[in-house]
Amino acid sequence: MASFGELLGQEIREARESRGWTQLDLALTALGDVNAERRIRDYETGKVNRPQAKVYQPICDALNITRQTIGALKAQAADAKTVTDDELLALRTEKGSLEQALSDLQTLTRAQLETLASRFELDKPYEASDGALVEFLTNTALDYRALRAEVDAIDEGVKALSNLKSSAMAAFDSGDLDEVEVLLSRVQEIAKDEAAKAAEIRADAALLRQRTGFARALLIDAADSFAILDPLEPARRRNAYGLKFVHHGLRYGGDGLRIAAEFWETCADIAERHGDDILRGNALSNLGAALRNQGSHTDGPDGAALLAQAVTATRAALEVRTRDAFPVDWASTQNNLAIALQTQGTRTAGPEGAALLTQAVTTYRAALEVTTRETHPADWATTQNNLAIALRNQGTRTAGPKGATLLAQAVDAYRAALEVRTREAHPVDWAMTQTNLANALATQGTRTAGPEGAALLAQAVNAFRAALEVQTRETHPVDWAMTQNNLANALATQGTRTAGPEGAVLLAQALIAYRAALEVRTRDAHTVDWAMTQNNLAFVEEALADHDTCPDPLPHLRAALDHVTAALEVYDPEHLPYDFGTASNLKTRLKEKLAALNTP
Hints:
Blueprint: H1 4-18, H2 23-31, H3 37-44, H4 53-62, H5 67-76, H6 80-95, H7 98-103, H8 110-119, H9 130-152, H10 156-174, H11 177-208, H12 212-224, H13 233-252, H14 256-273, H15 277-296, H16 300-320, H17 327-346, H18 350-367, H19 377-396, H20 400-420, H21 427-446, H22 450-468, H23 477-496, H24 500-517, H25 527-546, H26 554-568, H27 577-596
Helix pairs in contact: 2-3, 2-4, 6-8, 8-9, 9-11, 10-11, 11-12, 12-13, 13-14, 13-15, 14-15, 15-16, 15-17, 16-17, 17-18, 17-19, 18-19, 19-20, 19-21, 20-21, 21-22, 21-23, 22-23, 23-24, 23-25, 24-25, 25-26, 25-27, 26-27
């Protein structure tokens, strides 16, 4: 099996020869140095044992050898680990420490980002976009620091054991065997606690390296070791450990959510066997949330089945967490049930989906009977926001006056949430709710004719712009781009429905907002969102071409064609059939308009 240096040298030689270049040609093109010909020769003959990215990257760039190809060569090399170790050592030397490197992600090169991601065992980091690598490493840095803190605190339990040992020896010397038994029992308990803590730290280290299966085995063994002391302790431990896997699954994907659901299902079974209804209710509620998150991230029939299981588990939790006995837990579980029903309803077409959304709305309103603004203001605002989302989904899918009423109720619920989620007290939640409110107002405005519809669209634009005062590009780039895109949608609808110069200005503002979104929604980092925004730009350019103030439609039609053609580079009929069809129809229409102008 060849080393990375040998594999890379072979790739460079083949790429150079396919272009008909000499080694001198490559040295001049890539490195701008006639004396670098020998370096090229050393690479091609496999004499460079430790290839340095700062040298080979410009060579590869000149030959169009992609980073994906380089990453694949590293992965299959006989010295793959040594290569990564060397690159990590160079990075640590440059930055001073691994901690500093994780703190300075924005300053790292692409090769350095891949090196870090490889160390934390991201699968095929060379295939990830720059944005995806930074997001992965940002999350990893948080877990890395938490794990360091855990390791730093290891010696406390050892001190406790030492103290108990001294007491037990004194009891032996005094002949107090009952006290010896009590102390040794405590020693066993602490020893198991310490062993469990060690297992938990090892599990956290495994999760940091994406080894969820190993973490699962460690924590099952740790939980079950307590059965001899307390038959319910394995259930309590699983109940706590499940949160580790939810955290991991939501951050990194993989099977974390599935393992969390397994832990909570087992916890509920153990608690039921031993008659602990409180623990069982807690586990079932957690199980429902994990299944819901799994279902939300799973397409097709499998996702639908998981959501149905989530509803079943949450309803079972409500049989234990009754309103009379546990009113606060009951309301929280009602909220979770409503979220699951809402997710089901959103993904289910026709009357069945509408019925599920109706159940979700009813369930949210039931939760609000206990979760009042006076007693639980933050939870009340969250439930109002969730209720508003369900009402908006209902309203969007309901025609006529009934749909308009539901949308108005959604707006009222968002505004209620904003009474607690103020900009001063909860800026991030305030901005999110402002965005949700703006979307509801935009939907209302789009479906309402005349001055009333125009007023609603203007309110939507104002709400989007308010949200952008908090959702800045620097602090929340992805949310900022999404809100810019939604703002542009509202401006485009306004502009299309407004004649004269005012309408043209609104359409021009829509173009500016879409282009702003593309500063974050790049093709590499957010491929589908990039394509969607390109398609949106095409619609606005077409609207400008058709607008009554347009003196020459040709530039706008050509720009629109360029944008939709770009979108179709991503949209394909197999994976995105609806988007492909919409964009294809738009492209055909634009070509017909250009042909009518006798323009190629």
